[in-house]
Specification:
About 40% of the residues lie in helices and about 15% in strands. It has about 400 residues and is of the alpha/beta class. Strands 1-2-4-3-5-6-7-8 form an eight-stranded mixed sheet, with helices on both faces. A two-stranded parallel ribbon has the order 9-10.
């Protein structure tokens, strides 16, 4: 009689465990859906600054990116012949991506203007500057100013669902930042005045820059600032920031499941949203910059990306460089003169151009940059609480 009773107890135990697992999975799924609703789509902020505010020549452009177009500005290097503040593209966004048609003519029109003027094209490297989550192209002009002073063309653009682009209905994350960055790089490569393309990205834009470079051959060098290592760690960090008391054996699997559900609508995998996974594939020059006081994306994320990037490189591959700024948090790293110097010299070294790396670095370091007005971010964009006393900061 003992054996049948034991078998009956085992059946009940299996049933209880199965019901518990199903209940837990259903609860996790509801939680992940709720999380996706809250953080899947960015809050769009208006673009309030233009290159004209800094007395920079520019072209207003629309960058084709699949089934949509990205609002942007192309700022030519100082020596590039270009009509002062002439807007070559001033299209209006319509359904079905009508701006893409106008954008397709931008390069041809630029070449025609140069040819008509009879001026030889002074080809220079160009840097695509990628903003972070809930930011926009108007908040990237500190980077533009020092890169422009160092002799580079610059392209700033709004990632889909941000700035002047129309709102999105599906979640946006690192894969979308990467796709739009790759589209911007391809567009730059068609410009007659562009000799090589580099990318500088911040935060989610920094992760997107690495992912884009791992699969887009037009990207010849990357500077990535404050980039999260992967979406699972970033999701886990949001749990901690929200002061959710989740035991560790549950927290990490829940973060992975939540990240996977966040990516489902666009059919991306967790690996496709990982800067660590992409860094292991990318063989080009890479400079990683991070603030030691970053509480939203801790500096350990940079270490993980750097280790992945160097693990499979050999002596024939480009090096991986890192720069940790001890007094900085998540944002405004460009306020450090050495950050500006290292970034400009890095691009000059690997992309070439009219200036030596030393001269480009010195010119970038000498630029007094300005921090844009500080909005309230809703997704882990944290900065150091107090600027260090040895920095000179010009606030808007």
């Amino acid at each position: 009689m003992a054996r049948p009773k034991r078998c009956k107890r085992l059946k009940w135990l299996r049933l209880v465990l199965a019901v518990g697992a199903a209940t837990g999975l259903a609860a996790a799924y509801r939680f992940a859906l709720r999380y996706r609703e809250r953080v899947g789509l960015p809050r769009r902020s208006p673009v309030e600054t233009s290159p004209a505010d800094f007395e920079l020549d520019f072209e207003e452009v629309a960058i084709p990116a699949g089934d949509h177009a990205l609002a942007g500005w192309f700022i030519p290097a100082p020596a590039t012949p270009a009509p002062r503040r002439r807007r070559l593209v001033a299209a209006t966004q319509t359904a079905g991506g009508a701006r893409s048609t106008a954008a397709a003519h931008a390069t041809a029109e630029t070449a025609a203007l140069v040819a008509k003027a009879g001026v030889p094209i002074d080809r220079r490297p160009a840097i695509a500057v990628v903003h972070g989550w809930e930011s926009n192209r108007g908040r990237t002009f500190a980077h533009v100013r020092y890169l422009h002073a160092a002799g580079f063309h610059c392209l700033v653009f709004d990632v889909r669902g941000h700035g002047d682009n129309p709102p999105e209905t599906l979640p946006i994350n690192v894969p979308e930042f990467a796709d739009d960055t790759a589209a911007a790089a391809r567009w730059l490569a068609t410009r007659p005045e562009v000799s090589a393309v580099g990318v500088l990205g911040h935060s989610m834009g920094g992760a997107g820059a690495i992912v884009a470079a791992s699969r887009e051959p037009e990207i010849a060098a990357v500077v990535s600032m404050s980039a999260p290592a992967d979406l699972v760690r970033m999701t886990l960090k949001t749990f901690q920031m929200a002061e959710m008391q989740i035991p560790e054996p549950v927290a990490t699997p829940l973060a992975w499941f939540t990240a996977a559900i966040l990516l489902v609508p666009r059919r991306h995998s967790v690996e496709e949203a990982s800067a660590v996974a992409a860094a292991a594939l990318y063989r080009g020059p890479l400079l990683l910059v991070h603030g030691a006081q970053d509480h939203g994306v801790p500096v350990e994320h940079m270490d993980l990306i750097a280790r992945a990037a160097t693990a499979k490189r050999d002596q024939n591959d480009a090096p991986v460089e890192t720069l940790v700024l001890p007094d900085f948090g998540h944002r405004w790293l460009y306020e450090d003169a050495d950050c500006r110097r290292r970034g400009a010299a890095f691009f000059a070294r690997w992309l070439g151009g009219g200036l030596s790396p030393e001269t480009a670095g010195d010119r970038a370091a000498a630029v007094m940059v300005e921090r844009p007005p500080d909005p309230v971010y809703s997704f882990g964009a944290l900065a150091a609480k107090t600027p260090p006393a040895n920095r000179t900061i010009d606030l808007d």
